[in-house]
Design goal:
This protein is an alpha/beta fold. The protein is built from nine helices and ten strands. The structure holds adenosine-5'-diphosphate and magnesium ion (MG). Keywords: ATP-binding, Nucleotide-binding, Transport.
Length: about 240
């Protein structure tokens, strides 16, 4: 059998907003070094799940465990210092600064959060994100794919062991999607970073993910290889709304 190393685990996580449960009793493991896709219909709780992992939200009940440590009450800043990074659905950049300054800001944030320099060099980030020729450009002038690469570069500059991305492919055409997936593959393959990608484009997820987690109405549905998950009758029903 195969031995798996859990990098992050959720144990019976519930997230309430007032009386509303956006997540109910969710448990699963994220393997070290895997690319995990997270899919589910609009409003299923994907972004909520991601924020419970990265510290944007504190779980109302249950535990989040990273590298064997319970991190449930920790802020985003503390989790960043432990090696957990995140990119957002809408590119959040320091628009009036240059591309290079955006990467530097990520590096400074990471250094401050961990109290030590992140173990990744600017050269590595530039070669991965192909931003080397654009360092002096104002971030506001970049096209959507480039803004996404800048946001990813800044997140990598914090020196993460694990990175969460919320719908990174939104607004990109087929060619740009292939381009971005290539970068994500390199992030995992060359840096060994664990990747969790929330994405409703299931065909793209099937291409890149080792496993896919499906959630619906805030509940765990299944977690398995893309082939098994996307051919599952219940999952097909969820997507076709039957
Ligand atoms: P997804 O990312 O899968 O589209 P979300 O995690 O954004 O779904 O939202 C899941 C559910 O939780 C939705 O019904 C949404 O309206 C609700 N929700 C998300 N954030 C909040 C919040 N801060 N306050 C109240 N309800 C929220
Ligand atoms: Mg969302």
């Amino acid at each position: 059998g195969s031995f798996r190393m859990s990098h992050m685990s959720l144990e019976n996580v519930t997230m309430k907003f007032g009386p509303f449960r956006a997540l109910t009793d969710v448990s699963f493991h994220i393997d070290r070094g895997e690319i995990l896709g997270v899919a589910g219909p609009n409003g299923a709780g994907k972004s909520t799940l991601m924020n419970v992992c990265t510290g944007g939200l504190r779980a109302s009940e249950g535990k989040v465990i990273f590298d064997g440590k319970t991190i449930t009450p920790f802020s985003r800043h503390v989790r960043c210092g432990l090696g957990i990074a995140q990119t957002f659905q809408v590119p959040t950049l320091l628009s009036s600064l240059t591309v290079g300054e955006n990467l530097l800001a990520g590096a400074l944030f990471g250094r401050e959060a961990r109290g030590a320099p992140p173990g990744i060099s600017l050269d590595e980030i530039l070669s991965l994100t192909k931003l080397g020729d654009l360092l002096e450009m104002e971030a506001a002038r970049a096209d959507l794919l480039t803004r996404k690469r800048i946001m990813l570069g800044a997140a990598l500059a914090t020196g993460p062991e694990m990175i969460f991305m919320d719908e990174p492919l939104g607004g990109l055409n087929a060619e740009e999607i292939a381009d971005f997936l290539d970068v994500v593959r390199h992030v995992r393959d060359t840096l060994g970073i664990t990747v969790v990608m929330v994405e409703h484009k299931t065909r793209a997820l099937a291409e890149i993910a080792d496993r896919i987690l499906i959630i619906n109405f805030g509940e765990f549905v299944m977690l398995d290889t893309p082939e098994i998950v996307l051919n599952d009758d219940h999952v097909v029903e969820i997507y076709l709304g039957k």
